[in-house]
Amino acid sequence: MRHIISMLLENEPGALSRVAGLFSARAYNIESLSVAPTEDASASRMTLVTSGSDEIIEQITKQLHKLIDVVKLLDITGDAHVEREIMLVKVRVAGSAREEVKRIADIFRGRILDVTQSTYIIEVTGDGAKLDAFIGALDHKSILEVVRSGALAIVRGERGLRL
Amino acid sequence: MQFLKDEGVEYIFGYPGGAVLHIYDEIYSQDDVKHILVRHEQGATHMADGYARATGKPGVVLVTSGPGATNAVTGIATAHMDSVPMVVITGQVPTHAIGSDAFQEVDCVGITRPCVKHNFLVKDVHDLAETLKKAFYVATTGRPGPVVVDIPKDVTAPNVRIPYEYPASVTMRSYNPVVRGHPRQMKKALDLILSAKRPMIYTGGGVVLDNASDELVRFTRTLGYPITNTLMGLGAYPGTDPQFVGMLGMHGTYEANMAMHNCDVLIGIGARFDDRVVGEVSKFCPHARIVHIDIDPASISKTVKVQVPIVGSVLNVLREINGMLEGTNRRPDAQALSEWWDRINRWKSVDCLSYDHSDTLIKPQSVLQKLHEVTGGDAYVTSDVGQHQMWAAQFYPFDKPRRWINSGGLGTMGFGLPAALGVQLAYPDAQVACVTGEGSIIMCIQELSTAKQYDLPIKVINLNNRYLGMVRQWQEFMYENRESHSYLDSLPDFAALAESFGHVGMKIENPGDVDGALREAFAMKDRLVFMDFITDPAENVYPMMMAGKGQNEMVLSAHSRQRELA
Questions:
Q1: What ipTM was reported for this prediction?
Q2: B202 pairs with which residues across the strands?
């Protein structure tokens, strides 16, 4: 089953590679991983999406906890949460396709960030399935580049992950 | 150096080189911390490791950058697998040169990351004392382990002088190991433990590491339950005590493994359900509900699902449970326990460690039995890895913890000799024996030179069968006897080799000479004696739990194996 694990890490060089190294050393899956500093410069917030049986997920959370650089950890899969991913897509657009692509982007509430004579860069935000659907709606041959942030997630309400 | 002295470090095991020359210059001008010059950095880590295992204090290593650090990696990984507290200081090229492929540069933090408890790169001298303090704190608390501190050369430059103050305490918001067991879990555990009809206590290295032997003995004797130890846990419970049913696992005793298989309540303490213990997971303890006490939450339900987990220091939890036991009138079902012991005694009567004696060939098992006799069962015994290691575990019962020192987790050949030297340094008057084989000993043989320099009178018991015995045994059992590269040709004359290092060498070829040689060697209290026992090359380690089998499916002896094959 897919799990979203949120972590606060010490903002130290090497903290990211400790997490990544743990996953490769113990043959766990990483679906996506995103990390950046928080409002407190001493900590980074990581959102990691993985999958596995209940036993494997239990081991993953325990092993992550064991890393000295991991300050706090929460598997938010079971909590009510908001999940978002941002995607930038560069597509080749010419002639009537320019209108068509713009319409599709509107349907997905995407924004066109850059326009040239032959290309658009479109920003789409949503959960992973929505982004997949947007890519599916485009003419596959027209897609030049896709950049995705990986999932970001936060628990609704009072509960959450704070220092 | 001032920090190491303040931290109470007695010995530092090291080897100099460019990146640590500033530190070595400081070592030169003090004598509070004694430096032991090894002959190879792997030796330094194993010596520090042996010292740490025997004393419970952290072992300290100092090596240079690049090859100094990479040579230390095997010893760091060895300590990591067996949770040994160790602080390894590695030199690094100056901060401005990091990443430039400088001479003797290697990404030490990167290379050691998967085999340390934690590691640090110190980029600013102002952080040095605090980082070292954290390193010792992390290495010695919780589940212990090695910590590497990588120090670039400019950080130790003598022209940079800063005010030094020993950091008396350390707090880390991201590291707070749980030490107290959860009261409700302990109560649940006690209920289950007392309800057992066929109980079994299974303990590992965690009991030794946490100095919890006395509490374990109290617990076990109060209940009257059978107890087995893992390879790492030997000595935590007296090996000659009637409640002790021997080691368990791949080469454990028949009675220990059968009792494991048939028990209804298993009490795992400071053990990690390693594959060499469990065998085939799906066949493991099919009737048992399991209590597991461990300091490391990640060890719980890792391979085997347990019903009552207790996270906490083994010492604290056992003490609490013992208190609860003594405060209640409830006692186990005496009738059921007595029937259970009857069954165990029937398994015991199989005498699974018996072996064929010989008048012409030295049986390795007999050497270890003699060693036990000659040393009064009171020696510190280190070992390398292979058949001799298993025989030592089977035939030298340990009555005290920290006496049996071997590389159980990583299985590092070459460990035994340097580890024995570390033990002898810690306890200069103790009898220290290194049980080894001709394959293992040669992997770190250079440390015989270190032994000479510091006059460390260990006794080397080389069980020389001219084979990588355990490899040959597996080839015999699983590869139709194809002895691919397990025969060691062109071996040196070990006795002469030892003599050339300035020690006493003996070669023993007849069974009748074993006793005399051992007595003569141990009588030489101030000399290192290297005893090269030429043993039966065909001898195998029995009993054996083969791959994919359960604990109730052991091969007992050569004879039963022959019958099975026929």
A1: 0.90
A2: B228, B268
